Protein 1
Amino acid sequence: MLGDCDYCGDPLTNELQSVTCDHCGEGFHVECARDAGEFSVTVESKLLGSDNYRIVCPFCELSWTTSYDPR
């Protein structure tokens, strides 16, 4: 079970783009965090077929890297 979005309270599912912080474990829908103005993602590296993106958690403010585009 993925839990519930900390913004809207709806379940985190694979159908909606959901993110769970690797550090604090809080989960949220990307769209909900973006709508709240609290979603931060930057391109860390652009390599053919292996782009890396850095996400900053809106709850604990720590960041982690992912290989899919969370925007």
Protein 2
Amino acid sequence: MATTPIPVAAGLSAGGSQGNYRFALTALTSLFFMWGFITCLNDILIPYLKMLFDLSYTQAMLIQFCFFGAYFIVSVPAGMLVSKIGYKSGIVTGLLIAGAGCLLFVPAAAMHVYAMFLLALFVLASGITILQVAANPYVSVLGQPETASSRLTMTQAFNSLGTTVAPFFGAWLIFGGLDAPEPVPGTVTESTVQLPYLILAASLVLLAIIFAWLKLPAMGKKDPAEALPLGGEAWKQRHLMLGALGIFVYVGAEVGIGSFLVSYLSMPEIGGMSKGAASHYIAWYFGGAMVGRFIGAVVMQKVNAGKVLAFNAICAVLLLALTILSSGKLAMWSLLLVGLCNSIMFPTIFSLAIAGLKQYTSQGSGILCLAIVGGAILPLVQGLLADSMGVQLAFILPLLCYIYIAFYGLNGCKPRTVVSPDFAVKEPL
């Protein structure tokens, strides 16, 4: 998110040895890889289902609407569930539900009903939401608080590794690989999509069994009411509210660009390649994010996070302007390089938005988690623009999103001291 939702229960004190922490973090890294892999498959599923059901761009974007809409609907109940059963049990539950969503692709393909595919995606995303609500704060508390942002950025680099590998897997199984001829609308079959999701279902169930067996630090159980992002002081914090909007537009921009990559690169005036070949280039987009996150995990220990965020956002604006105004290889690579700019944005916006919230950190994280719905709404709007003015000009929407993110990094992320005597916000280091 390629996009990773935010924990709804953060700021817990950790217990256990550093050895246990390292082992637990290693195990959790596999989860970040898996959900990055699954989320990226949507970008290949969109052109496949678009041809299968002869959809408009707007109708095809309902795939992302259902997938990321689940984050908005399920995140709060997921936070309450994880607060009751703990992080480890939450991870196992999320893996099993995600596996069930993958299995639903089999009857969806057999019935040849687009709505069934959307239902399967919603169930799959619901499981991933529970998984991430448990795993993200788990990473945050397994170690020193001062390095939580760096740890989260590092583990999300493996999320990007999953998004980098997924295009090759999906293109091979769904479109037949790099050298396969372009599928003709009307000849695409439903059965092609069954095998990839059966493999994923088996992998998720296997991971659930492994995590149920692993001895991990017991954390995460707390009062479920603390996870509810409803009312209270957190809503009064300017930097948090602007950060929530930042998460909204960032996820919307990243998902929107990824959703249109295959269609855009296969256009004659841009890449002029088959959809199978274009699918492989998604790896460049998310691979850039992976490389950038490894670099960012080191750089942001020395450089002000807000300035790094603004710099990356301005670079993304310039690259999108170039892809809109040009054609051919220049337009193609300008868009793909936006992935490198995306690298540190999500964890940086998250960290800046909850800076200084103290006892309201859990509530603030819940508010940010709701903002993930940008991945459902903005790609749908971009689909409407693509149907009315063309795919290339529709990239004006993510360009505007990155302009806002640049503002947030330079100014909007600065906390303001509030009146409440028990809630003093300090400037982040």
Protein 3
Amino acid sequence: MPYYRVVGEVPRKRHVQFRRPDGGLYAEELMGEEGFSSDSSLLYHRHLPTAILKAEPVEPPAASALTPNLPLSPRHFRTQDLPAGGDLVTGRGLLAGNADVRMSYVATEAPSELYRNSMGDECVYIASGRVVFESTYGALEAAEGDYVVVPTGTIHRWVPDGRVTAFVIEAAGHIRPPKRYLSKYGQFLEHAPYCERDLRSPQETLIVEGEEVPVLVRTRGGLTRLVYRNHPFDVVGWDGCLYPYAFNINDFEPIVKGIHAPPPVHQTFEGPNFVICSFCPRPLDFHPEAVPIPYNHHNVDSDELMFYAGGDYSARKGSGIDVGSISLHPAGFTHGPQPGAVEAVIEAVRQGHTRTNELAVMVDTFRPLDLGPAALSVEDPGYAWTWAR
């Protein structure tokens, strides 16, 4: 994170004696990235965060294998046809992935158990509904349109308020704002499409009593369920630059030009060998001879996966794409507007249409994406041929 925060009670100096009301010491926990040479936070627990009573192996989900995208083809998946079930951790239906990132979709009403992903950061986009994200850092309310960024190793759980749907991005490393939006000291620059004021993080600590508390832990070796002697939500205070936060897609300020701009203007986050972009409602390109719609394009180094979250997709009319759809356009394939879409949009502009109201989350990966079982179960088999109609 680009700025420092303090929540709850912390001593004036780091790593000095900090005592409980009964005279005992609070237990420090330093959460640090990249071998403690990058961002970190210092948490103060009432109990030892190291005290575990049991460790049990957990079988991975049966539907977790990936299949190569062969024969190479553009794809369309209808997430609205996927069944609800599980929770925001165990109910994730795997859509696509590679060694750097995995993307899933989930629809659920159930609260999750405590969970720690020790493989990398997560970015969870709430497509619909409301949920409370609880963690060792405190609680955070999230709703439709929110990205919730969860740092590696954070013990947390999700508590939905009714039905929630989410698009989940799991990284093999850290997810951060793009470097070009930040000063060399980490402050958002004036040209950035969002800033610190748009980010929401826990405002107070969350204390939960409990003993013999299970936590599901994901590591590179697989899944384990650890049983902690005391509930991990016992932090009386923390400070630092590493913590979970939420950012609403509607707070993204689109960068507009007189003629159509390429996808990097929509970039919101970056991860290891991938980027996350937000396509938001914005004025159409305003040059008098502009073609206010994407040109045919071939991102030769990336696979492009797009989650259509809301609005109207004039460039894709006739393709079958709708809200809840996911398209995958792999490197090796040129894609663009559907036949007739360019002239239709030019005519709409002549009639006074001046804005686009599309809302979408795009993940561009710099290594090929394989296909997950959830995606293959709801694929539109005719999508690849829609440009030839």
